[in-house]
Design goal:
With about 350 residues, the chain is α+β, with helices and mostly antiparallel strands. The protein has helices at about 35-55, 75-85, 90-95, 175-180, 190-195, 320-325, 350, and strands at about 5, 25-30, 30-35, 55-70, 95-105, 110-115, 135-140, 145-150, 155, 200-210, 210-225, 230-240, 245-255, 265-275, 285-290, 295-310, 330-335, 340-345. A hairpin with a 5-residue loop joins β12 (about 230-240) and β13. α1 packs antiparallel against α5 (about 190-195).
């Protein structure tokens, strides 16, 4: 990946979101801008990129700040954790920070990621996720292989659960697809499908993010939960036509956790892109920032990418114990059978993993 084509479009958190006119298509270039007209352009570019990422390699440098906050709107949880379980309140508020690096390999349903502690000279607090480092993991829908070179031990585990993952989940199970996912709950095509069910409430205007001309969409709603009390929500999605309608920013707000009063930021996503070396109209993430605050935890993750190659042929051997570097005679524990793990010594010529 070269830097000369880098196009920085990261959304600054202080970006002001304007008020839009409800339900009115607006002129853009030579045509009229509507959600039904924009949606297939976004989905087409997203699918093209996803298909290429299904066979890819690259390096991700990640930084995570995760803290548990005890606020008035989580009073019931505070009582559960502090009063009922006797946990120290100062411990609940103690931040956890970490930086790490991932080298990933993708080939269809096979995913491999090697994790490394970030090299730095900062204080020890930056390594609070060190238990996840120094591992090589290869997964598919049937099983997960794990090797830890430091202890020369390997495991055959059940595959990772297919569920919505918050940023901290990337520590244990890295997925490059998650970093293109604008919301913890919704993949982009699913989000667009959900928006289409209430298209008349989508407001659209053009806007600028840095030097980029963008399309800015807002969807709002409310529902009465009791007489005179309304649950309200607001979502914003910004895409760039110049970047093949890639998502520049997403924001999700709601008032459920504030006693149905003011809106609170639940999720925020901002991205920078650069053009894929061998694909003219495909834009790949260069840097992404994810803010997640839908429960007791607040997580802020940033990731910078390097050496990304898409549409490549990754050898099948990369996803085996031999490819992970497990030497003959290493102790292997099979944890897929239930009950006590079955242990054996690895022999690559006879055991076929």
């Amino acid at each position: 990946m070269t830097h000369r084509n880098a196009c920085l479009v990261f959304l600054v958190s202080m970006l002001s979101f304007g008020v839009l006119s409800v339900g009115q298509p607006i002129a853009y270039g030579e045509g009229v801008l509507t959600f039904s007209g924009i949606r297939p352009l976004i989905e087409s570019a997203y699918k093209t990129r996803s298909d290429l990422l299904a066979n890819s390699t690259g390096v991700a440098n990640l930084s995570l700040d995760r803290r548990i906050h005890v606020l008035d709107d989580f009073k019931h949880l505070r009582e559960e954790f502090v009063d009922n379980r006797g946990l120290n309140e100062a411990g609940l508020n103690y931040p956890k920070q970490g930086k790490w690096r991932v080298k990933w390999y993708r080939k269809g349903i096979n995913n491999r990621y090697d994790t490394f502690a970030a090299s730095n000279t900062e204080s020890d607090t930056i390594n609070q996720f060190s238990t996840y480092m120094g591992k090589r993991i290869a997964t598919n829908p049937e099983r997960s292989l794990l090797y830890t070179p430091a202890t020369n031990t390997a495991y055959i585990n059940k595959p990772p659960r297919n569920k919505a993952i918050n940023p901290a989940y990337l520590l244990a199970y890295f997925s490059v697809d998650r970093l293109y996912k604008v919301s913890n709950m919704w993949d982009l095509p699913v989000l667009l499908e959900r928006w289409s069910e209430d298209e008349h409430n989508i407001r659209i205007r053009t806007s600028k993010v840095g030097d980029l001309d963008c399309v800015h969409m807002v969807k709002e709603g409310e529902r009465e939960v009791s007489p005179g009390v309304y649950r309200r929500w607001r979502e914003e999605l910004i895409v760039s036509p110049k970047l093949s309608y890639s998502v520049v920013a997403y924001r999700n707000m709601g008032n459920r956790s504030t006693g149905f009063k003011e809106l609170k930021l639940l999720e925020e996503y901002g991205a920078e892109y650069e053009r894929a070396d061998d694909y003219q109209d495909v834009w790949l993430l260069k840097r992404v920032s994810i803010h997640e605050a839908q429960g007791m935890t607040v997580e802020k993750l940033t990731c910078e990418f390097s050496d990304v190659k898409v549409g490549v042929d990754v050898p099948d051997s990369v996803f085996t114990f031999e490819g992970l570097g497990v030497p003959p005679g290493a102790k292997v524990y099979d944890k897929t059978l239930g009950g006590r793990s079955r242990g054996f010594y690895y022999e690559p010529t006879t055991q076929g993993f």
